[in-house]
Design goal:
7-stranded mixed beta sheet; binds S-adenosylmethionine; globular; about 290 residues; 11 strands; 2 domains
């Protein structure tokens, strides 16, 4: 393991940041590839340690950092790792990098279902890296879940992430178009969740290059008005949800009211727009009849 003095390491860090990029991305690189987290660094200061032990040498870490700055490739893809809630997830360019705002979906579920030990059968449509479903399956080991995606490569990553995070077997992975893989579970779901592609065509064209050039288009683009997939998911949801089953959707910052109306039109009750931490109506939830 390469060893380095704390002083030298801090100087190296400052030099890298002076080339560009942000603190968070560098911290992710250092933690996932270098094996040094921010708390390791703080601890070494508190304990006046003089040396740090790195998993990879600084030249290697610097080459990834420069690749990130030059190509605009997200640091998560270059390191193959992202941190989301308390999970460490494998990511490749086959899956969307799960976003911090989507972490709140898990809190919405906690709020609805609380700590009740009741059995719940849930499905997540479009699981990507598996983040949301894995967080729920870990929190509720007695629940059973199905996570689906149209992309087999994404499902392979989600499956690996589940195996790496859990000792249980309460989550299954199926491939297919939205509700199609759930044909045999009609009327049986207590909860369905989706963070579908919802970016409108014209917004998609203007996305920053680190998103547009690297993250899967299939995970982002929601058709002309962004609502193509949300519409399809809502229209078919009544076939798959149990009576009083919940549907939780993530949507674009300005789609909340339209999604709310779609839910009401499809006989959902208790329809509510839920804000994210920046006060944006990011989620729309409802209960079927
Ligand atoms: C916005 S990403 C969300 C990924 C993950 N749930 C998250 O929150 O990070 C949307 C996901 O839906 C999947 N998807 C796109 N079209 C689909 C379809 N027709 N049927 C099922 N999944 C689809 C994509 O492959 C992608 O993984």
């Amino acid at each position: 393991m390469p060893s380095i003095s704390v002083k030298e390491f801090l100087f190296w860090k400052k030099t890298q940041l002076s080339k560009g990029g942000d603190h968070q991305s560098l911290a992710l690189l250092l933690d996932s590839a270098g094996g040094i987290s921010n708390s390791d660094l703080n601890l070494s200061r508190i304990k006046s340690r003089e040396h740090l032990y790195l998993r990879k040498n600084l030249d290697y870490l610097e080459s990834i950092w420069e690749d990130h700055l030059l190509s605009s490739s997200p640091i998560q893809y270059l390191c193959g790792i992202t941190f989301w809630r308390d999970l460490k997830l494998k990511v490749t360019d086959k899956v969307l990098i799960p976003r911090p705002e989507s972490e709140l979906i898990v809190d919405i579920v906690f709020k609805i279902f609380g700590k009740k030990p009741q059995k719940v059968f849930f499905a997540e449509l479009g699981t990507g890296s598996g983040a949301i479903s894995i967080a729920l399956a870990l929190k509720y080991p007695l629940w059973d879940g199905i996570a689906t995606d149209i992309d087999q490569d994404a499902l392979e990553i989600a499956t690996k992430n589940y195996i790496n995070s859990s000792k249980h077997s309460n989550l299954k992975f199926f491939c297919g178009h939205w509700w199609t893989p759930l044909e045999s579970y009609k009327g049986k779901l207590d909860l369905a969740i989706s963070n579908p592609p919802y970016i409108p065509q014209d917004t998609y064209e203007k996305l920053p290059k680190e998103v547009k050039n690297f993250e899967p288009k299939i995970a982002l683009l929601g058709g002309e008005d962004g609502l193509k997939h949300i519409r399809e998911i809502i229209q078919n949801a009544p076939l798959f949800l149990r009576e009083k089953g919940w549907l939780i959707l993530e949507n674009h910052y300005d789609q909340g009211e339209k999604v709310k109306q779609l839910l009401i039109k499809n006989k959902f009750k208790a329809v509510e727009i839920v804000n994210d931490l920046s006060g944006v109506g990011r989620f729309t939830i409802g209960r079927y009849k």
